[in-house]
Known about the structure:
Strand content: 15-25%
CATH topology of the largest domain: D-Maltodextrin-Binding Protein, domain 2
Shape: globular
Number of helices: 11
Number of strands: 11
Low-confidence stretches: 1-24
CATH superfamily of the largest domain: Bacterial extracellular solute-binding protein, family 7
Radius of gyration: 23 Å
Helix content: 40-55%
Strand order of the largest sheet: 2-1-3-10-4
Number of domains: 2
Mean pLDDT: 93
CATH architecture of the largest domain: 3-Layer(aba) Sandwich
Amino acid sequence: MRLKTLAAAVALSATGLTLSTQAFAEAEFTFKLHHFLPPMSMAHSKFLSPWAEKIEKESNGRIDIEIFPAMQLGGKPPQLFDQARKGIADITWTVGGYTPGRFPKATVFELPFMPANAEATSMAIQEYAEKEMAEELKDVHLLAMHTHAPGSLHSRENPVKGGDDLDGMKLRAPNTVMADAFAVFDANPVFMPVPQMPSALSKGVLDVAVLPFEVVAPLKIHQLVEHHTEITGDRGLYAQFFLFSMNKDTYESLPPDLQKVIDDNSGLELAGHIGRLFDESELVGRKAAVDEGNSFYTLPDAEREKWKEAMQPITDAWIQNMTDEGYDGAALYKEAQDLISKYEKQNGGS
């Protein structure tokens, strides 16, 4: 009996040693993942880090992903897509609107009053990209496209309760589409990536920051502003789209079984997962602003309809511009709308 027990213990120990050796074996592939937000951001802690860990686990340690937040590998946020394309980084995550004109078909999701919640809109843009954006994305291996939750207005000194309040205000425009949209109220749009906003607000370069609550807390925007204006309804004011991209040669260097690990953690399901994270994080960021004692104002239905009407020419111009470029602008706009509605219904309108 003792001999059997001893034999079993030796066998278990040997198995454990084998497993331990495998667990600490050097990875066959080590990839660099580069992005622009700080480590305390939701995107880093709840999306990118867990994603990298999942890849490492499902590859049995054969793939190791090193994450470099806050532009630690150098460059500026608008350069991230090209860093993945050129192989400066193996994987990057960035905002599409930081490179105006680069992804014209995707800008339909930037139009005013286009987005629903981030989950539905993210799944919509992922399917749309797979159908419509092969040419625009041909130089990278796309892991996922997604959006954040619809953005709000965060003002330093004066609350925004209507379009007239934006007259003359220096307002951060998240992209060129929304810069044109806010210009209808005679605001002074200033385009800048998210990481530049805390400094711009503190120095008075900006009066109003336009962004989702999700990024308010990690950048401490709620400590730099006093007022928040929310736009409710079945469609939000605006959304940014993001690209999660892998260098094409890096992906193709993997054997088929490891390509499958990447593929299993890419595409529509990943887009929806990221969207849900952004939706959930809106509540966290908003609570930080509430705890700060800031004021909140929800745009009344009548005022929201005025904004929609005032900004409609921006959508009309987008359709015409795309048509002038040789695309069917009206069809692309309808497709984006239909896909958002499709995933809203599929997800139970959540």
